[in-house]
Amino acid sequence: MNVVLFNIERQLDDPLMYSVTVSFDDSPPVKYQASYDDSDSRARFCNVEPDLFMELSNLAHKRFGDCTIYQMELMSIIGAFAADDLDLTLPAQLGTTQYCWSKPTHLKILPNKLSYWFTMIKWRLGIGRPKLNDVTGTENAG
How far does CA 24 lie from the centroid of its chain? Predict the structure, then answer.
């Protein structure tokens, strides 16, 4: 379950858009679109294509029990590239770079995995299960 970042390129027609080339495991590299905006001093915005976002979430959850590790690292890498401050040799494996804000260790992974399995067991027993539909058939919310 390796995520490798191969290339980042700035779009010529839009300075806020970037092409990010990423591969998952042994699959060939795929080019995704991302945007980065740090014009507001209070927040940074980084949007990536939904396919890339969900693939990063799924792999990080399977591996570390935390869905945000790869996403936050990719956002930091794109932000450094946008500021022309990227000191990373590409290709780079996500989860191992200096931009990874929370490097996973066994002490961080174990509580995440235990919490996940404990929640799944509780839901299967019917304890604390989220209600999907609170509106009955005769009550209409419109």
Answer: 13
* CA angle, residues 9, 13, 17, in degrees to nearest 5: 45
Q: What is the 3-state secondary structure (H, E, C) of the chain?
A: CCEEEEEEEECCCCCCEEEEEEEECCCCCEEEEEEEECCCCCCCEEEECHHHHHHHHHHHHHHHCCCCHHHHHHHHHHHHHHCCCCCCCCCEECCCCCCCCCCCCHHHHHHHHHHHHHHHHHHHHCCCCCCCCCCCCCCCCC
Give a yes or no: residue 88 inside a domain. Answer: yes
- pTM assigned to the model: 0.66
- Total domain count, the chain: 1
In a domain, 81, yes or no: yes
Domain with 65 in it: 3-101
pLDDT digits (tens, 9 = 90+) for 77-105: 888 888 888 888 888 888 778 777 666 66
